Amino acid sequence: MSKSQNIFDNQEFFDGYKKIRSNRYSANNLEEKPALFSLAPDLAGKAVLDLGCGYGENCAEFKARGASTVLGVDISEKMLAVAIEEHPDIEFLRADMSDLSFIKGKYDVVFSSLAVHYVEDFSAFAKSVCDVINPGGYFIFSQEHPLTTAPITGASWFRDDDGNVLHYKLTDYARGGKRNTKWIVEGVEKHHRTFSEIVNSLCEAGFSIERMMEPVPTEETIAMDKSWEKDLHKPNFLLVKAKKQ
Amino acid sequence: MSKSQNIFDNQEFFDGYKKIRSNRYSANNLEEKPALFSLAPDLAGKAVLDLGCGYGENCAEFKARGASTVLGVDISEKMLAVAIEEHPDIEFLRADMSDLSFIKGKYDVVFSSLAVHYVEDFSAFAKSVCDVINPGGYFIFSQEHPLTTAPITGASWFRDDDGNVLHYKLTDYARGGKRNTKWIVEGVEKHHRTFSEIVNSLCEAGFSIERMMEPVPTEETIAMDKSWEKDLHKPNFLLVKAKKQ
User: Fold this and answer.
1) Which of A152, B111, B123, B215 could form a disulfide with B31 if both were Cys (CB 3.0 to 4.6 A apart)?
2) How far is A12 from chain B (nearest CA, A)?
């Protein structure tokens, strides 16, 4: 299987990312995280695997919710150094999540927050995730919204002369494949997939889709800062809850 | 349940629609129809219901594929008059498909080609479709792509001074609800739903998603007429194959 890019060990990217994530009012905190946890089943006594765990803060929450085992996996040494320091009671492993052959044993719930868009071959990945899940277990993940990953020249908005957003410039939605984008630094490799490619890969791997979410900001968030309103034109995230059949 | 608009009995709409459908190189013929039939299971001996059957040409194809029973349902008297004349061996019924309480008995496969975007309450509709399907049976439908139905002011492209498409003007994707659009005539009522609303409604109704398609023109079609290329930015159709659990 092709290897994923390890952009998080790029110092400039790492520093920039840290800054974004420390913002209380980030899209991660206001949109993605509440949606992800709303999809979580009861974790009491469950074995949980977190693919692309980053700083490990979700791992800590899974543990707090009663998970019996939590393993956090990430490709980045720098991210894991933070995770290990902040959550010394949790097990972390450095590995490329696009190949899960290193995983021994099975898990009840596999989470992945904003990492699967770095995986090149989603079809093979879905199969390998299904292989490490107990029957009846769940794969719950978030990713950049397919409308965000679509444009080959990068996501962008059309604005009037005063800077107001008029529409999202959608291109290349049906052209799946690698995207070389600028996010914090140049040359971040992501992979665009249509909704149907995502759904079909999961179904073929042995999952049934239980729920999808495309979270948007609350009215309170928009009232606080009108720039959030553009997410109603084009959401930032897609989340899927899939059950192993 | 709210009633659907009966725009097909508007004479101007009916005439305009007839002209579009008679074009061999329409998006229906080149993209939607091949995708719909590729999702069809073996129909030999199966009871088939076609919701929004229009001219009844799909009903005839289901019959040709060996279906034991075919019932075509449409809200439009004018459309059904054509259907009855062209396919005298098939049973047709005039009714609003948004309320299926008139259906007696169960079907093995329910098809619906380009009609569900006229149904206001998709969640209630999905439940009522599930009710008329035998266990293990299928609901296979096509609809206008959610990116087409999204913009409140109607689907449109951003072009350069020479008329070349630069991007699709995406707005309002996350704002589900009624759309009052111009298509052939003014005032055609459609209903926009996000991918997640469609998927969640089907799952809650008792279906499991088996496959989704967002067909695009073939390379041959694009070579024949370059204007088809814009469908790679934004597909025209979404198709879903859902199985009653």
Assistant:
1) B215
2) 32
Residues A66-108 have pLDDT tens digits of 999 999 999 999 999 999 999 999 999 999 999 899 999 999 9
Asked if residue B56 lies in contact with residue B90, where contact means CB atoms within 8 angstroms, the answer is yes
Tokens of A161: 């002369």
Dist. CA A28–CA A14, nearest whole Å? 16
Domains of chain A: 7-244 (3.40.50.150)
- Check CB contact of B213 with chain A, cutoff 8 Å: yes
Distance separating alpha carbons of residues B158 and A187, to the nearest angstrom: 28
Determine, for residues B173 and A213 on separate chains, whether the beta-carbon distance falls below 8 Å: no
Cβ–Cβ gap B212/A196 under 8 Å: yes
Residue A41 CB burial class (10 angstroms; 0-12, 13-18, ≥19): middle
Rounded Cα–Cα distance for residues A114 and A130 (Å): 18
Q: How large is the ipTM? A: 0.94
Is B233 in CB contact (< 8 Å) with chain A?
Answer: yes
**CB pairs < 8 Å spanning A and B:** 104
Q: Tell me the pTM.
A: 0.94
B178-230 pLDDT, tens digit per residue, is: 999 887 788 889 999 999 999 999 999 999 999 999 999 999 999 999 999 99
Minimal Cβ distance to A167: which of B170, B174, B194: B170
